[in-house]
Give the backbone structure.
Amino acid sequence: MERLEEKLRGLAIARRSRPDEATYLLHVALRPTGLLAVACSDFTIHLHDRDTLHPVGEYRGHSGPLCGVTFAHGSPDLLCSGSADGTVRRWDVRRPGTEAVQMFRSDPSHSYCGFDLSCNDTLLCAGTEQVNDEDSFLVFWDARKPGAGLLGVYSESHSDDITQVRFHPRDKDRLASGSTDGLVNVFDLSRGAEEEALLATCNSDSSAGSVCWSGADYTQLLCLSHDEGLHLWDLGQLDTEEPLTIFSTPDARSLTPLAGAGGLDYLVGGGWLEEAQKLLVVGGETSGDLHLMECDHGGLRLLRSLEGGHASTVRCFLWDAAGEALVTGGEDAQLLLWKPGGEELTTGKMASMKSESALRLKSRPHKKHGYQREKKAT
């Protein structure tokens, strides 16, 4: 842990890049060979060099808000993106500016809020918005056969927008989904039918915003809610009498872990740092300042605050283990690269390009349900 803290203490802005137009940077993904993909609020995807942040291309084609981007694991030249326009598309990053090489659809009424690709690149899964005020769906495709149609649909486990879908980093059949109905479900897809596949349901008591696999063997699950709640569960306890909850708080802002720093206004997301064996949670202030925190059974602990970078709310981040760098993007249209000992050529905080007309993602209010589908009390 001392080595990680030392790296984080040394972080400084090494590079800064931003689009020519005011747009929110919503999601970011990294290709191992040094390419960043950034999903923007104007429905475009920008490609940047990992080390310089220089733009190297973009893709246009989606007609609705993007819900994520991810590179294929075995074929890193393929980039996947999902959108509320009801499509998941694949792009060849060797040919920036071209049309998508593959497109996946389901029912015309489906609008996707989240998607992911399994660790062996065989399965694509997308979660839909609520349809007809009643149903929401997890839809599955064989990622190797875009023209073969749907493999199947799960329709009983969520009752509102499915905001996040996350495959296990090592188990191709393990899938987690989060929804504005407050539930986070875990499935074993090898069991087939939905009722048999549902292993566990954890209740966040709020609208689940993001889900992240964590822990030494990725047996833990982190959930961040839209109202800044934080929940960490240990799925390794499913077959025991021990509680699943490692740590839980309905409002992380109330924990005030930022001694000597500013307040915490929101949570950006979480990520498991494999080399350090630590769960990193990133939060921020509306001014653009960031706070890097460790999360475990003891709650949140501040590791480092990053000031003077962004001029507005930060929407996405990733930790580049190979480059020992942090990448952040936000509503000020800026993409920042933080590295130990980094020294930006142009110093000083840049003005925000935030536009009043820029897209603001909305989340539906949490609906209190009178029923529980929990396999185990949490």
Q: What stands out?
A: The two ends are 29 Å apart (CA to CA). The chain is about 5% helix and 45% strand.
